[in-house]
Amino acid sequence: MTRQWLREVKLTVEGGGTVTELSALRIRFRTMQNNLQRPNSAHITITNPSTETSQRLKKEGQVVTLEAGYQDGGPSVIYKGNIIQKRSGRENPVETYLDILAGDGDQAYNFATVSKTLSAGSTYRDQVDVVAAEMKKHGVEVGHIPDLGDKKMPRGRTLFGMARDVMRDIAMSTGTSWSIQDGKLTMVKNQEFMPGDVHVINSTTGMIGLPEQTLDGIIVRMLLNPKIKPGSKIKIDQ
To answer: What is the pLDDT of residue 5?
Structure first.
């Protein structure tokens, strides 16, 4: 197991044919990630960027990639999304800051539209492929898509409107949840999990305090583990 000390972070911004790496600066961040069918968000603060760097990051829509972890195992991607907003200012007389607000798949979520008719005999996967093709135009690739069954539509199916609304209808019909994770269209069965290892959580693997049971589930706090994503399966063993 990777030793959870000596934290390491890497931040890059890509857009306009250039890649800007900001890892040498002080970086603070907070990400909100879930599978609730809306873009995951990130609030990133960079301390003392140069005026040239701030101007280079001025445009919206640039892709920001945040990697974090520990020096023992190296950082892994914990967030990837489009810059929605930036704000610069001064924290004190000697230090400036640049705030970045990002949305994962924000462009696809807000602007991707669908207008296509599928013939009789099409499947739910065919519908997902239509949506995925439109979202790809806005930078979103296809991620994990489970088996949606072999049910065939008895009649032609017209898909029209916002891609996110079409995906919501498909998810309701197939008993799944859909979301965009690190720039990838992802679906997970409501009673299943993302493929991969089961992550054991206890005091030796970074759990902080004790788990709390609520009406909505169990809340557990732990040290940063970039391998755990929305939809991952965990085992609380304490």
So the answer is: 83
Q: Map tokens 């409107």 to a residue.
A: 161
- Closest to 131 in 3D by CA, of 163, 161, 106, 105: 163
DSSP letter for each residue of the chain: -----SEEEEEEEEETTEEEE-TTSEEEEEEE--SSSS--EEEEEEES--HHHHHHT-STT-EEEEEEEETTTEEEEEEEEEEEEEEEEEEETTEEEEEEEEETTHHHHHH-EEEEEEPTT--HHHHHHHHHHHHHTTT-EE-----------SS-EEEEEEHHHHHHHHHHHHTEEEEEETTEEEEEETT---SSPPEEESTTTTEEEEEEEETTEEEEEES--TT--TT--EEE--
According to DSSP, the residues that pair with 28 across neighbouring strands are 45
Q: What is the pTM of this model?
A: 0.86
Q: Which residues of the chain have pLDDT under 50?
A: none
Token pair in block for residue 177: 């949840």
Q: Give CA torsion, residues 162, 82, 103, 34, to 10 deg.
A: 90
Query: Cβ–Cβ contacts within 10 Å for residue 90, how many?
Result: 9
Structure tokens at 85: 């907003």
Q: Using only C-alpha atoms, what is the Rg of the chain?
A: 20
Distance separating alpha carbons of residues 231 and 26, to the nearest angstrom: 31
Structure tokens belonging to residue 148: 């949606």
Calpha distance 31→83 (Å, rounded): 13
